[in-house]
Amino acid sequence: MVILGIVGVTGFLAPGFFLSGDEDQRAVAGGTERIAPTKRPQTSPGERLVFRIAEGLNRKDTAALKKVACPKRRSTVDRTIDIVPEIRSATLFRILKHNDHFVVASMRLSTAQDRTVLKVHVEEQGGTVCWDAVTFEGPSPLKPPQPSKTSEPDERWQGGVPPAADQFMKRVVRKINDRDQSVLRLECPSIIGGGLAKLLDDDAKLTLGQVTQASPAHATRLVRGTLGGKPADGALMVSRLSVNGKTWWCVFHLFFD
Fold first, then answer.
1. Which residues fall within 8 angstroms of residue 115, CB to CB, at 6 or more apart?
2. What gap in Å lies between CA 99 and CA 119, rounded to an integer?
């Protein structure tokens, strides 16, 4: 069992975890005295889910991992599941953050190519705790997202926003306005800020404004609209990435004043 291996090495769980809960005795003058059973500390749903994720990675159980993924999740979750066949071991060794609504835990990850440390983020969505994101401390073993049909290299750029970038930005805004969760897959691996999920939660309604920056690999346009029914002004920044001959556009930052 993963839990026993983890606790045996690190002992990070609360003292008393291994107590049986049976009645005990202690020596007193004239004999012994019964003391009440000791209760085991209760782990939270988020902590239990972190254990299940570590177990799923070690067992290469992609079906189980997909079941615990959040409906509104960062693309790094799906891309981590994609490399499960290459994972040799995942060792949970520290709970970094923990409250009633989210848990962040560190795991040592070994793949056929490298070793690294990944942080598993789980949170509550719609009353259910689920796997929301993955970040890395060290080299990332994740493969780049698959390029979309509108993200081919744009050889026609002669100033202004590259046509492929303009199409991509319109697509992003349309998906946000439609509360289409697939927009989360359009985030850059190194997206700045909290990502696009919160915009879906706030029922954002956006329109694109003027161009403030453009180059063959980057573009920024102002955005205006509402967040949670309140007026909001900001900017959408996109970048063009290229890895192993594949090129695609992704959302680098979307922020509001």
1. 108, 109, 138
2. 16
Q: Is 36 left (phi over 0), alpha (psi -120 to 50) or beta?
A: beta
CATH of the domain at 220: 3.10.450.50
Count of other CB atoms within 10 angstroms of residue 157: 16
Q: For the segment 82-104, what is each residue's pLDDT rounded down to a tens digit?
A: 888 888 898 888 888 887 778 88
Provide the residue range defining the domain that includes 80. Answer: 1-142
How far is Cα 27 from Cα 21, in angstroms, rounded to an integer? 19
Q: What is the pTM of this model?
A: 0.47
Tens digits of residue pLDDT in 131-140 = 988 887 766 6
**Quick one: 91 and 195 in the same domain?**
no
Same domain? 76 vs 188: no
